Amino acid sequence: MTGTSALDIRGLVFSYPEKPGAIDSIDLSIARGEKVGVIGPNGSGKTTLFLLAAGVLRPDHGNISIGGAPIVPGRFNPAIGMVFQDPDDQLFCPSVEEDIGFGPANTGLHPDRIGALVRDSMQRFGVAHLASRPPHHLSGGEKRLVTMAAVSAMSPEIILYDEPDASLDSRSRRSLIGFLSESGETLLVASHDLELVLEVCPRVVIVDQGRIVADGSSRELMSDERLMTSHGLEKPHSLAHHSPENGHSHSISAD
């Protein structure tokens, strides 16, 4: 891994009242410009990890920084954006255009610049025709695209995508893969769609029971059927005839 560190997580620990050890001593470093998949079974800690990294939750222990600057929980940070798993957690303005402009407006930009960012983002995600529509009147797939346009409009350094292709039809999913692949931002993508992760992310992190159990090449780790099965995952069909190369090593933590 080369380049300046974009996201650095050290000794991260977090518990919910009903779930101790939701995140258990995670260390993770993401280089600027990297695209990293985060995979694991339901309840493994992927969403919680993202909420901590975005400053939505406050860790019990540990440090999170972006470009060397500490994340302050509860404080708006334009350097990091998160596309939530449920779009209804993210959309609250009277119209799509206002929702997409909300983030840029809170960064103190000139109104003309905000307008340009909103128009560009709506165009890229194909939602310009929805500009005046109330978000709660949209379909699940339309809401998903609007949330991604809203985060993109802020021009963050890092974007966290939590199940980004949920509710998307096959055409929109293919467009999303193309957009993510060509994106210049640092990306973390949590998804059960392992083929999407494989196409977009050269590196993958496997999370289980709140811990990182493997970190390395997407093709190599996801080809390891024993590793995948032991953590509630299935080897992607596109890797059916691919096995880890002899002598290849990857980082796997002790369970």
Tell me what the structure shows.
- The strands form two sheets. A seven-stranded mixed beta sheet has the order 6-7-8-3-9-10-11, with helices on both faces.
- With 255 residues, the chain is of the alpha/beta class.
- β7, α5 (170-182) and β8 form a beta-alpha-beta unit.
- α2 packs parallel to α4 (140-152).
- The chain is globular.
- It is built from eight helices and eleven strands.
What attributes does this structure have?
single chain, 255 residues, alpha/beta, 7-stranded mixed β-sheet, 4-stranded antiparallel β-sheet, 8 helices, 11 strands
Q: Give the tally of β-strands.
A: 11
Question: What is the 3D form?
Answer: globular
Q: Class by helix and strand content?
A: alpha/beta
Largest sheet: 7 strands, mixed
Rg, rounded, reads 18 Å
H/E topology pattern:
EEEHEEEHHHEHEHEEHHE
Strand order of the largest sheet: 6-7-8-3-9-10-11
Topology:
Blueprint: E1 5-16, E2 19-31, E3 35-39, H1 46-53, E4 61-66, E5 69-70, E6 80-83, H2 96-105, H3 111-124, H4 140-152, E7 158-162, H5 170-182, E8 186-190, H6 194-200, E9 203-208, E10 211-217, H7 218-223, H8 225-230, E11 251-252
Parallel strand pairs: 3-8, 3-9, 6-7, 7-8
Antiparallel strand pairs: 1-2, 1-4, 4-5, 9-10, 10-11
Summarize the model shown.
By secondary structure, the protein is α/β, with parallel strands linked by helices. Helices cover 30% and strands 26% of the residues. It contains 8 helices and 11 strands.
